[in-house]
Each structure stands twice: as C-alpha cells, then as structure tokens.
Amino acid sequence: MLHYSIEGTGKTLVFLHGFMENSNIWNPFVPLFSKTHQIVTIDLPGHGKSDTENEINTIEIMAEKVIEILEFLNISNATFIGHSMGGYVSLAIADVYPQFVDKVVLVNSTSLPDSKEKKEQRLKVIPTIHKNYSLFVRLSIPMLFAEDLKPLLEDEMNELKQIALDNPINGIEAALRGMRERPDRTHVFYELDKPFLIINGTKDSTIDIDLFETVIPIKENIKIEKLNCGHVAFMEKKEKFVRILTSFI
C-alpha cells in the first residue's frame, strides 16, 4: 500500500503531488485545511516513502492505488487536488472511479496527452537520470518556476530539489514512462457533471495552457483561474492559491 498521512475531520480532501515530488509539498497547507476538512496526503508510486515494483507506473496504476487507500480508510467520496502528474491521476480517478469524486482541482496540469515531441523528450532524459540524477534535478527544478519569481523563491526551489533527490531513481523512470503513455482525458470534462477547478500558470513552460484551454468546455461546473506564475502555483503564489482553493472547496 502507498504511504499516506491523514489529519482532521470533515469532508475529505485528497492531495496528490507531482512528478519528482512527494506528499511533503502539501505540508504548509495541512494545518489550515485540516481545521475544516479531513486531509489525506499520499506518496504516489515510486515517490517519497512509496515503493514501486513496476517498470512503468501508468497513471491508471497510480489511480488504482490511491483508491485502494481510500477504500482502506472507508472514504467513499472526496475532493481530489492534484499538482501536474497528481492532476493526471485525479482526472484518471474521475474517469475510472467517478463514484469517489466530489470535486476535482487541477493545479498546473492538463487533460491532454503528451505530444510526440514530449514523448521523445521523456525517453531522452532517462539515461541522464541514471547517469547523474542530482545534475538532472539541479537543472530541471528551477525551470519549473517563473523567471521573475526565482529570486524570491530560493528556499522553495532548494526544498523542491531536496524532495526530488530523496526519490528512488527507478520510481522516477517508472513515472516518466507512465506519463508518456497517458491518454487524452478531455472527455471527462464533458461527461462528469462535478465541480472542476483548473489553476493554470501564465508562465508555465511545462504545460501548454493555451492549447489546454482551447479544449476545456465552457460549463458552469468548470472554473479556470490563471495565476502569474510558472509550474508550481502553490509555491509561487501561495496566498492566492489558498484563497482560490478555500473558496472552491
């Protein structure tokens, strides 16, 4: 079973981290949201304290393992809040296990699959990860942040680097290969009549938000928020993130 933490009482919020992260990224928010909700934070397969036995951790495998935890905890309904890869997992849960979904929050994520170029890029970095993972982390983490915010967020960048370095390399490769295989899940927006909150960064160099926003249907249950940041909105614009999330849940 995946490693998880649970705190607070009330309606359940499930926080799912992104690629090369772990559940500790949500630590700054747990004390606040656990005052009004039950908070479940999870280390996805091959990240943090969760092992992996798979060479490829598909998004569907990750979703299934998250649901296993909820069933173990007797949680039948939750709001899923996913950053990047965690957003892919949240959408997969909404697709495959809609009965568990109250609301969905996508943070710097997308419903679209990898482009051909992105798929090739993911394969190309695998040898680098095995050869010099620490270099890969040191180079890639700063790219997640908006250029103009980097001088203000040195501590956050260093924290994210350390979290990334603590992950097992086989888990990182398995997740890379899994993300590469994920399908288009835009249909979930059309088929699932539950509240969706989409938080995009206008300076996100990882997600093509312009392309993503062209496929999001205009529906009353879907809310889009754009923040002046890169790929880690919850770190770059923490106060705004809290405000937006609080009003949605």
UniProtKB/TrEMBL annotation:
Transmembrane segments: none annotated. Residues 12-237 form the AB hydrolase-1 domain. One of its GO terms (molecular function) is hydrolase activity. One of its GO terms (cellular component) is membrane. It comes from the Bacteria. Gene3D superfamilies: alpha/beta hydrolase. Keywords: Hydrolase. This is Alpha/beta fold hydrolase. It comes from Faecalibacter macacae.
